[in-house]
Amino acid sequence: EEITIEGPTLYFLRPHEVLVAGKHGSDLRTKIVLEKQEYIRLRDAKSGNLRQVHGPATVVPFPHETVTSREPQRAVKLSDLEYVIVTDTLSGAERLVSGPALFFPQSAYERVGEALQKRPLSELEYTVVTDTLSGSKRVVQGPALYAPASPHELIGDTSHAFELKQHQYVKLLDSATGRVRVMRGEAVIFPAAHEVPAEGNPAVRNAVNVDDETAVLVLSLQTGQQRLVTDQGLFFPQPLEEIVEVRKLVRVEPHEVAIVRDNKGAFTFHAGNGTGDESGAAFHIPPFSELVTMMWSSGTSKEDVKANVVRNAKQVAYKVPVQKIDLRPQYAFFEYKVRTSDNVELILEGTIFWAVKDVPRMIERTGDPKGDVWYHARSALIQAVSKVDLLEFMASFNTIARAAAADEAFYEERGVKLYSLEVTRYECADGKTASVLQEIIQETTNRINRMQKQRSDNEVEHEELTAKIEREKQRSALIEAQAANEKLQKSVEGESEGTRLAQNTLAFLRQLNVSVPDAQERLSLLRFFSEQATLTKQTEHLSTGTASLFLTPQDVNLKIQGAHRAGAAYV
């Protein structure tokens, strides 16, 4: 039997008693001193029992007792945000201790787990707590600082409540019952324990504002039927309804046609001028229907078409989507390789001017009218050029192109019309042939230039002669006008002079009625005075002018007698 002697004391060994040496060989051992926040566990080596001693205390182990840990253990200090789970290792029972506290195990057989954090929840946060024993779940809403009510509760992740504005909603699915409910704003929604968002991310969705431009295609999950909602206002789906698509109003310009295909494959054609005016048309696509999208050949990519970029490509290297068919005439550019009958390979460039005329026939016969026009025009042009030689082609390539475009039956059965096929440029594919062709073209150009120059010179000379003729005509007209004016002036002056002479004569004769009764004598006197006045006027003109007067002897009744000389004659 072993006993422990606790000091301070003076102890004398009894007979048959011996000191038991400690671990370090010493007979005396140090007591274990515990502070207020410390405790120690001792194990009895004989019985295997454990005992626990709390501080503050001085502990003297009993015989056969050993300390389970090298140092005293400290009590667990729990703050307001912490809790621990304590397990009884004998019974397996667990209990939860929540802070704030300074926790000492109640027995030596209790094991203290790590300190865990309580779950802080704001006003808009919640967490789902699961009881691991029963499997039941419950929702804990904020604001709260939550610690589990029992050790068997498992706290889930912190989630944010659904904040809904007036135009928003959330659809929640109860995973336990399969029930779906729709919650509309304005509200803050906390889901139930088994509820999850029925729709993917985002869970909160906006209601659809249905107006003149917008409609909603809705699928009923009960019946599988679709309906198109056009009633104006905010649309919130029912729990078993799903929004398939928000459809915008399809506008069709007066020059366009849109094709709608239903689930039976029937086509409906919406023409912009179907009402008889030029205001266009607008419609919503019905349920179980779609707007037909055709893939047309194009020299411009789909990205360039969206960006309104025209690259003037001469090869149909892309397929672009077309939903509205443009009925206006449109251009397509081409670059074809052809070969003449004398085996000269040419590269032709030009434009195709075409238009869609019959949309139902087009949709029935082809899915790519532009590609059909482009490739058939190439085939027709290759055939037409192969029948002529190079010189004939150079002389009449436009005529050949018009002949190649004359196959109207091919285009009519596809609902299109080819207005023109124009070659704007051609060149030889072979370099040597191209050089010879350039020389021919240069010589032809020079000849045309010379002819044009000669024609211009002729036109200039013609205009010059025409101007001279016109000038002479105007001069002749001027002379005629001057002569007429002079004649008129002299006529007026003559009439005036005649009137004056008549009046003078009449006055002269009246004054001589008494002195010269004989009328003949009066007339003789009048004639004499008139002749004298005329001679006086002539003399005045001769004396003041530069004219020379030549008179004969008979005119002046003059005889000249000079000195007689021998051999001379009398004049």
SSE diagram, text form:
Blueprint: E1 32-34, E2 38-44, E3 50-54, E4 57-59, E5 65-67, E6 73-74, E7 76-78, E8 82-88, E9 94-98, E10 101-103, E11 110-112, E12 116-117, E13 119-121, E14 125-131, E15 137-141, E16 144-146, E17 153-160, E18 162-164, E19 168-174, E20 180-184, E21 187-189, E22 195-197, E23 204-206, E24 208-210, E25 214-220, E26 226-229, E27 233-235, E28 241-248, E29 250-252, E30 256-262, E31 267-271, E32 281-283, E33 289-291, E34 294-298, H1 302-306, E35 318-322, E36 324-326, E37 330-339, E38 345-356, H2 359-365, H3 369-385, H4 390-404, H5 408-412, E39 416-428, H6 431-511, H7 519-544, H8 553-556
Antiparallel strand pairs: 1-4, 2-3, 2-5, 2-6, 7-10, 8-9, 8-11, 8-12, 13-16, 14-15, 14-17, 18-21, 19-20, 19-22, 19-23, 24-27, 25-26, 25-28, 29-32, 30-31, 30-33, 30-36, 34-35, 37-38, 38-39
